[in-house]
Amino acid sequence: MPWTTRNYPVSWKNFEPLLRKKAIDIANAMIKDGYTEEQAIPIATAQAKKWFEDADPAELKTLKYKDVTKHKAKPGPSGARLMDDNVLVTYNKAEKHWVVKSETALSADSTHRTKAEAVKRAKEIVAKRGTKVIAKKCCDS
Known about the structure:
Layout: H1 17-32, H2 37-54, H3 57-64, H4 79-82, E1 87-92, E2 97-102, E3 110-112, H5 115-129, E4 133-135
Parallel strand pairs: 1-4
Antiparallel strand pairs: 1-2, 2-3
Helix pairs in contact: 1-2
C-alpha cells in the first residue's frame, strides 16, 4: 500500500508539508520499483531534502497538486533488482572503450578509456552491494 499525506513514516512527521510530500513521492516510486521500505525511507529522505532545497516556486506548485500515490513500474530491471547483480567490465571493440555494467542492466553504468579505470568504478559499485566484479580479458567480448 503506498504512503499518503496522511499515512507516512513517523520519521517524516516534522517535515514541512511539501518536503514530506516529495519524500512520499520518491519512496512510493522506489517501492514500485522493488525497493523495500527499509531501503526507500533513508534514500527518499535524502533525495527529498536535496530536491526541496533546490526547487523553484513552479516545481513546488506542481508538487502541491501531484498525486504521489500513483507510480508505474519502469520496464526492465530496476535499481532494487540490480543490487544483487555482479558488475561486468568488458571491452567494446567497436567503440574502443571499457564498459561497466550490472549483469542484467539494460544500459551501462559508465565507459572508460582504460581497464584500470573501469575496474576501479566497478569496485566502487560492488562495495555498496556486496557482490563481485567480473572483468573480461581485453578483446573477448
